[in-house]
Amino acid sequence: MAAFQDQVSENFDQLTVAQQDLARRVLELGERVAFMTSRQLGEAVGQSDAAIIRFAKALGYDGFPDMRDAVRARLLDEVGSSGMRQSETNDISAFRRALVTSGTSMIEETERLNAHGKVSAVVDLLISARQIFVTGHGTTYPMAVYLAMHLRQSLDKAQVFNIEHGDLADRFRSVGPKDVFIGIGYPRYLPYTSDILKLAREAGASIVAITDRASSPLARIAQQTLYAARAGSASAWWSQLGTMFIADWLNALVLARDETTITHLRRSDEEWKRLGHWKSDSNNARELSLEQHRLRSLRNGAEKRPDSLNASAPRRPRK
Questions:
Q1: Is residue 80 part of a domain?
Q2: What gap in Å lies between CA 193 and CA 187, rounded to an integer?
Q3: What is the pLDDT of residues 266-302, one digit of tens each?
Q4: In terms of domains, do 190 and 273 share one?
Q5: Over the stretch 3-46, which tens digit does the pLDDT of each residue have?
Q6: 94 lies in a domain?
Q7: How many whole angstroms separate alpha carbon 152 and alpha carbon 159?
Q8: Are 127 and 155 in contact (CB under 8 A)?
Q9: Alpha helices of 84-139 — where are they, by DSSP H?
Q10: Whether residue 140 is found in the same domain as residue 208
Q11: Domain span holding position 225
Q12: Is residue 262 part of a domain?
């Protein structure tokens, strides 16, 4: 918190009277600021989230995420990741409400951070790519697997590209200009992900970063960057809801735009049948297949489709 306090002290005289009062109230909240969205902080101090963003910029930050990162960085240095976990409440109802509110705010903030045109451009890259590789290490590793699995299901050309496979040099031989690498990373930014993205870019691949701020080492390498809202919750010190929302957003647009996905889903259904999926005791013949799920969702959304799915980009023609 010390770095943030120094920033407040250096800029205090230039703040308006209202912002000076806001600065005092924010300082009183202490390290809790590291786990809040702009909306949550605004509610805590009786201000709008727009006022919080203006306050952060008045202190010299690029915006609220940048200000919050300053608080987090200091806290992470002082107590480590284990010490950044928030204390839990004994009130289970309050705990559940806080968790739901925090998650909802992160998803909404993630949507605000990413213009639809930017997300649409990334989807165009994915649909036209020869191969898609997703890399993420540490706590983002499960997110890399999640995104790669869904894109593989939809487009049949995605896979995880991480150091644990032990054959990076061999795998890089097949990387070229028609490929797309997606790197996922947050503080502390693990160098493995950045190194892989650098080598992929040198090989001519298009680079997409999913990260938390423009100053992230991943964002500096990428041609396209998507930003996930990050905040601590009462159950875990970092939540990945923002990342999962971006993954679902990308995959939903891919399914809506690329008509060839129905072929891939149909083939997956056939393989599941060969594996005996619908013959097992836990399933029955009435269970919808992947293809049926997709067709039903398209029918349900035909009359009233969200703007994010009603994209103007041309559909990929069938081959």
A1: yes
A2: 12
A3: 777 777 777 766 555 566 666 666 667 666 766 666 5
A4: yes
A5: 788 888 899 999 999 999 999 988 888 777 877 888 888 888 88
A6: no
A7: 7
A8: yes
A9: 92-113, 116-128
A10: yes
A11: 114-319
A12: yes
